[in-house]
Amino acid sequence: MIAFVRGTVADLTLSSAVVEVGGVGLELLCTPGTLAQLRTGQQATLPTSMVVREDSLTLYGFAEEEEKAVFELVQTASGVGPKVAQAIVAVLSPDGVRAAIASDDVKTLTKVPGIGQKGAQRIILELKDRIGAPRGAGSVGVPAAATAWRDQVHQGLMGLGYATRDAEKAVDAVADQAGPVPDVRALLRAALRSLSKA
């Protein structure tokens, strides 16, 4: 298994990063929060988890080891695959996941796309004794991933030639549309519409 990847960030998309390692570009599926910390051309070290299927080998990249550990643990709950596990770590911090499970907080878990009431109850039931207690203070909320879209949309607008001030105004104009799991593409389109009206 591939435990981590270290190399130059060759490319970034809305859902993945390509890291060049020894002349080979490895594509890692990442959360918006992780992608927001990466820059093309810079060195990066990302903990990774490899998901093996009959027809594919998929690498998931994470900002930190703790995120990877939670990603792998939640997949041991029945009905949770890698996509839902990735959504969990995108919406909640590792401590947020621990706190929600420890306190039977179904409402927090159902904020994650793909998790309904029954799914949240099943995750709590199956993982409560294994996930451990939250490690930090005040942890249930949404992590940097919730605000990472701002940086991505801002960078996108700058890349299209808009001035910094205009890009900032456009990002502020669409902030109320972000929701718990921001759709960066949709927000970028909305920001472009707001700029065309101005």
Automatic annotation (TrEMBL):
<dbReference type="GO" id="GO:0009379">
    <property type="term" value="C:Holliday junction helicase complex"/>
</dbReference>
<dbReference type="InterPro" id="IPR012340">
    <property type="entry name" value="NA-bd_OB-fold"/>
</dbReference>
<dbReference type="InterPro" id="IPR011114">
    <property type="entry name" value="RuvA_C"/>
</dbReference>
<feature type="domain" description="Helix-hairpin-helix DNA-binding motif class 1">
    <location>
        <begin position="72"/>
        <end position="91"/>
    </location>
</feature>
<dbReference type="GO" id="GO:0009378">
    <property type="term" value="F:four-way junction helicase activity"/>
</dbReference>
<dbReference type="InterPro" id="IPR013849">
    <property type="entry name" value="DNA_helicase_Holl-junc_RuvA_I"/>
</dbReference>
<dbReference type="InterPro" id="IPR003583">
    <property type="entry name" value="Hlx-hairpin-Hlx_DNA-bd_motif"/>
</dbReference>
<dbReference type="Pfam" id="PF07499">
    <property type="entry name" value="RuvA_C"/>
</dbReference>
<comment type="similarity">
    <text>Belongs to the RuvA family.</text>
</comment>
<dbReference type="InterPro" id="IPR036267">
    <property type="entry name" value="RuvA_C_sf"/>
</dbReference>
<dbReference type="GO" id="GO:0006281">
    <property type="term" value="P:DNA repair"/>
</dbReference>
<comment type="function">
    <text>The RuvA-RuvB-RuvC complex processes Holliday junction (HJ) DNA during genetic recombination and DNA repair, while the RuvA-RuvB complex plays an important role in the rescue of blocked DNA replication forks via replication fork reversal (RFR). RuvA specifically binds to HJ cruciform DNA, conferring on it an open structure. The RuvB hexamer acts as an ATP-dependent pump, pulling dsDNA into and through the RuvAB complex. HJ branch migration allows RuvC to scan DNA until it finds its consensus sequence, where it cleaves and resolves the cruciform DNA.</text>
</comment>
<dbReference type="GO" id="GO:0006310">
    <property type="term" value="P:DNA recombination"/>
</dbReference>
<dbReference type="GO" id="GO:0048476">
    <property type="term" value="C:Holliday junction resolvase complex"/>
</dbReference>
<dbReference type="InterPro" id="IPR010994">
    <property type="entry name" value="RuvA_2-like"/>
</dbReference>
<dbReference type="Pfam" id="PF14520">
    <property type="entry name" value="HHH_5"/>
</dbReference>
<dbReference type="InterPro" id="IPR000085">
    <property type="entry name" value="RuvA"/>
</dbReference>
<protein>
    <recommendedName>
        <fullName>Holliday junction branch migration complex subunit RuvA</fullName>
    </recommendedName>
</protein>
<feature type="region of interest" description="Domain III">
    <location>
        <begin position="145"/>
        <end position="198"/>
    </location>
</feature>
<dbReference type="GO" id="GO:0005524">
    <property type="term" value="F:ATP binding"/>
</dbReference>
<dbReference type="GO" id="GO:0000400">
    <property type="term" value="F:four-way junction DNA binding"/>
</dbReference>
<keyword id="KW-0233">DNA recombination</keyword>
<feature type="domain" description="Helix-hairpin-helix DNA-binding motif class 1">
    <location>
        <begin position="107"/>
        <end position="126"/>
    </location>
</feature>
<keyword id="KW-0234">DNA repair</keyword>
<keyword id="KW-0227">DNA damage</keyword>
<keyword id="KW-0963">Cytoplasm</keyword>
<dbReference type="GO" id="GO:0005737">
    <property type="term" value="C:cytoplasm"/>
</dbReference>
<comment type="subunit">
    <text>Homotetramer. Forms an RuvA(8)-RuvB(12)-Holliday junction (HJ) complex. HJ DNA is sandwiched between 2 RuvA tetramers; dsDNA enters through RuvA and exits via RuvB. An RuvB hexamer assembles on each DNA strand where it exits the tetramer. Each RuvB hexamer is contacted by two RuvA subunits (via domain III) on 2 adjacent RuvB subunits; this complex drives branch migration. In the full resolvosome a probable DNA-RuvA(4)-RuvB(12)-RuvC(2) complex forms which resolves the HJ.</text>
</comment>
<dbReference type="Pfam" id="PF01330">
    <property type="entry name" value="RuvA_N"/>
</dbReference>
<keyword id="KW-0238">DNA-binding</keyword>
